[in-house]
Amino acid sequence: MVDLAYPERVRIVEVRDNHSIVKKGVVSTQRAPMAVIELSLGLTGDMSGLLGTRQTLIVEGGDDALILHKISGILRDEGKLHLSDRVYLWPARGAPNTPMYAAFAVGHGWDSGVLLDSDPEGNAAKNKINGLVLKDLATEQRSKFRVLILGSAAGIKKTDAAIEDLFDDEFYVSCVNAAYGITIQLSDLPVDSSDMITKRVETVLIQRYGHTELDKRRVMSEILRRFDGWKKVSDLPTGTATRSEKLFRAINAAFDSP
What we know:
- The protein has about 260 residues and is of the alpha/beta class.
- The chain has helices at about 30-40, 45-50, 60-75, 100-105, 120-130, 135-140, 150-155, 170-180, 195-210, 215-225, 240-255, and strands spanning about 10-15, 20-25, 55-60, 85-90, 110-115, 145-150.
- The protein folds into two domains: about 5-160 and about 240-255, 3-Layer(aba) Sandwich (Rossmann fold), CATH 3.40.50; about 170-235, no CATH class.
- α3 packs across α11 (about 240-255).
- The longest helix is centred in the first third of the chain and has 16 residues, at about 60-75.
């Protein structure tokens, strides 16, 4: 079993000339161990080879990729700044897993990077990535690896920020209300803890409505339903286009992509 949250624990055993060699890291020159690593990262067939020819940006999850692709497409259709077509978004199934994906990308010498939320998990992932000396390794491999933090890259004026904070708070609360059949008001949200919209909403769900946590997948289903009605920039929630354009500008600039 490969625990994606701990790439530093991975050891690969290679057999060369009838001798066993133990390597530290997540990249091997032999196919058998790489098949195990690639499977754990959700890579199938020749996908890893295809990613190596592109600029790969690791994101924390599939929701991040869905939201960024949708907004980018709307901006592109109106001739506005959007995510470069050369940048491929690679979901990592959670911030704690991003160092493993980063180690794999850097070990292969990919032109790559990671986009992390501005929250404790994102900061922990950033520290682990730096602790694994991925930037130094990327330099040795003659490739580049970038760490982008969502809040500062998108100009979100919050201490903590996740992909949902590209939208305005009112929009996200309305999606929560529709998904749960409740009537949370903006004035109900706490102001004495995290300013991330998901954390503020979760507090109300727990304290007022008896839920154990915020089911982000449930809310995402409502957001995806509303996606179908977004055809032009003016359809986007307030401020979303501005924040997204700034984020895409930061990503494209980091990759030197048009």
